[in-house]
Amino acid sequence: MPAFAQSLPLYSFAPAKINLSLHVCGRRSDGYHDIESLVAFASEGDGLTLVQGEALALEITGPFAFDLQATDDNLIFKAVKALQKYKSNLRLGTFHLEKRLPVSSGIGGGSTDAAAALRLIAQINNIPFSDPDLIRAASETGADVPVCLETQARIMRGIGDHLEAPVQLPRISVLLINPGISVSTPAVFSALGLEKGQQYRSADAMQLPVVIKTQEQLISLLMQTENDLQAPAISQCPKIAKVLNALEALSGCEFARMSGSGATVFGIFDNFDHAESAAASVSAQHPHWWAKPAWLK
C-alpha cells in the first residue's frame, strides 16, 4: 500500500443513542444500578475521523465543541487506553471529533464517540469487532459504550454489560429536543432514592419480537413501558416537563418520552415531514433549544 494511503483519514459516524424505554430494576450492593432498556440509534450524531500517526491525539470542533476538552478524561482517550491494556503496540493517530450532539444530554454522546473511536482503532489494527478485548475495553470505558459498538436496536440489561439480540425496527420518524441543559446522571439516579441492595422492578420483564413491523406496534409496546428516570430527572430539572408538554402538543406527535437520564426528549411522529415542520416550529419559538428531526433504526 502506498505510504500516502495510510495517512488518509478514516471516518466513523457516531449516532445518538435513544433510550426508547428505561426500567431501573434495582440498586446493587456495589452501588451500581441494574437497568433494562430498549435502545435505538438516530440518523443524527457526531462524526469522528482518524489519521494514523505516532501518538494519540484529539481535536474537537463543531457546535458543541466548547463543552468538551481533549483531556485524559475524554471517553475517546479512555476507550483507546482501555484497549491498549489488552492489545500491545496498537497503531494510533489523531482523532478529529465533529461534536454535533449536546453534551450530558441523555443520548449517549460521549459513549457513542468512544465506540466510534474503538471501531476506528480496530480498523487500522485489523481487530475484528467481535474481539472480546474490544468488547472488554468498551465495558471498562462506560456502561453505554458496548451497546454503541454495533449501533443496532436492542435491549440492554445489567449495567450495560448484557446485550440481547438485535431487534429490527421499522423506519421511525422522530424529533429530538434538548433545552440546552446538562443533567447529571449520578444526581438523577440518586434522586430515584434506592438503597444498596434494593429492588425496584422485576428483572428480565421486557420481551420483544425479533422484528417490530410497524410504528403502531412499536408505540403499543412502548406504552407498556416507562423511563423510570424521567420523574427524578424532572425533579432535578423541571424544564424537562415543559419540553415534553410542548412536544406532545405538536401536530403529528404520536408518542413522547425522555431519553436516558435527560434532558433530551424524543417524539415519534406519523411522518418525517411533520417531524421536520415541528423542528422548525420549535426552533422559531425556542431558538436556544436544540431540535433535530431524525430517523431511528
Describe the protein's topology:
Elements: H1 3-6, E1 10-27, E2 33-53, E3 57-61, H2 75-84, E4 92-98, H3 109-124, H4 132-141, H5 145-150, E5 154-158, E6 162-163, E7 172-178, H6 185-192, H7 215-222, H8 230-236, H9 239-248, E8 253-258, E9 265-269, H10 272-285, E10 290-296
Parallel strand pairs: 3-4
Antiparallel strand pairs: 1-2, 2-4, 2-5, 5-6, 7-9, 7-10, 8-9
Description:
The radius of gyration is 19 Å and the shape is globular. Helix content is 31%, strand content 28%. The strands form 2 sheets. Strands 1, 2, 3, 4, 5 and 6 form a 6-stranded mixed beta sheet that branches. Strands 8-9-7-10 form a 4-stranded antiparallel beta sheet. The protein is built from 10 helices and 10 strands. Strand 8 (253-258) and strand 9 form a beta hairpin. The protein is an alpha+beta fold and 297 residues long. The two termini are 36 Å apart. Residues 220-286 form the GHMP kinase C-terminal domain. It comes from Hohaiivirga grylli. Belongs to the GHMP kinase family. IspE subfamily. Its EC number is 2.7.1.148.
